[in-house]
Amino acid sequence: MPLSEGKNSSSITSAGNVKAEVFSSSASIEEMKAMAKRLRRHIITMTGKAGSGHPGGSLSAVEIVTALYFKRLRHKPLHPRWPDRDRFILSKGHAAPLLYATLAECGYFPVDKLITLRQLDSYLQGHTDRTTTPGVEMSAGALGQGLSFAIGVALAGRLNSQKYRVYVLLGDGECDEGQVWEGAMAAAHFKVDSLVAIVDNNGQQIDGWNRDVMNLDPFSKKWQAFGWHVIEVDGHNLVQLIEAFDQAKLIKGKPAVIIAHTIKGKGVSFMENNPDFHGKAPNAAEVELALKELQ
Ligand SMILES: Cc1ncc(C[n+]2csc(CCOP(=O)(O)OP(=O)(O)O)c2C)c(N)n1
């Protein structure tokens, strides 16, 4: 069944098909591109309806999350706490609209819930809450903590002889936080090779360009110096992302980081590289324009 409009319509989702519980990886690149566009439309609609939220850093990470959830992550949308699932940890918790859209498309909860983003009593709050939202692994929003959390989850898997892999998505601005580098040191020290960090390297943070706020360069060399295997990709290229996940799996005795070069606001012309849309929702006219571009 091709990816098509409709509730939980992914060809790879198991929603509505209890026999195929483990997500398969049969989606084609074309199907995944269509899904990426669909996720972008959700992000625009959700934040527009809420009148608040973080579209820029959600849009930049769409392909990263698509490649994981629809190709490489082993998970069961109908059984969110399946003990052997691969873990996806969203450390940059403000990109919650992207994660919610993805989880809904996978079948963790109905797609029509997405428009309840940030409403009182909704389980789709502005930042993630693992106690209320099916499929969310970590309550996040305070930046800098996800890598440490992910190391703990990976080490627990090792202690329990479980085979799951742990993926954690960080923002590049988030890497200004000292705790990220404490985590980086610990992961290498403990040889956490079931761990993959992905940095959404869109070059911007809340107040503008990283190079003006707090320069991170030489970014790749920093990770190498901390003992990580570094892979750099075009973060909007699904093929490169999938290959990077596969390469990371082969690395033994050290953690891997994928530095994904992306564009903040990707896919919507007036949002691209525009820090105004870091934490500002599109108004009604902007929603209309954006959705037209994303047809
Ligand atoms: C500990 C902490 N300090 C400050 C903030 C406020 N804040 C929210 S998003 C953000 C910028 C993050 O930049 P980046 O990680 O690059 O995210 P992206 O550009 O991908 O959205 C900041 C400073 C926060 N959420 N947590």
- What overall geometry do the principal axes of the alpha carbons give? globular
- The beta-strand count equals 7
Give the amount of beta strand, in percent: 5-15%
CATH homologous superfamily assignment: Thiamin diphosphate (ThDP)-binding fold, Pyr/PP domains
How would you describe this structure in keywords?
single chain; about 300 residues; alpha/beta; Rossmann fold; 5-stranded parallel β-sheet; two-stranded antiparallel ribbon; 7 strands; about 10% strand; disordered N terminus; binds thiamine diphosphate
Overview of this protein structure:
- By secondary structure, this protein is an alpha/beta fold.
- It has one domain: Thiamin diphosphate (ThDP)-binding fold, Pyr/PP domains (Rossmann fold).
- It contains ten helices and seven strands.
- It has a five-stranded parallel β-sheet, with helices on both faces. It has a two-stranded antiparallel ribbon with strand order 4-5.
- α1 packs across α3, α3 packs across α9 and α5 packs parallel to α6.
- The longest helix is centred in the first third of the chain and has 22 residues.
- The N terminus is likely disordered.
- Bound molecules: thiamine diphosphate (TPP).
- Thiamine diphosphate binds next to α2 and β4.
- The site of thiamine diphosphate has 20 residues, from α2 and β4.
Compose a concise summary of this entry.
With 295 residues, this protein is α/β, with parallel strands linked by helices. Helices cover 37% and strands 11% of the residues. The chain has a five-stranded parallel sheet with strand order 1-2-3-7-6, with helices on both faces. Strands 4-5 form a two-stranded antiparallel sheet.
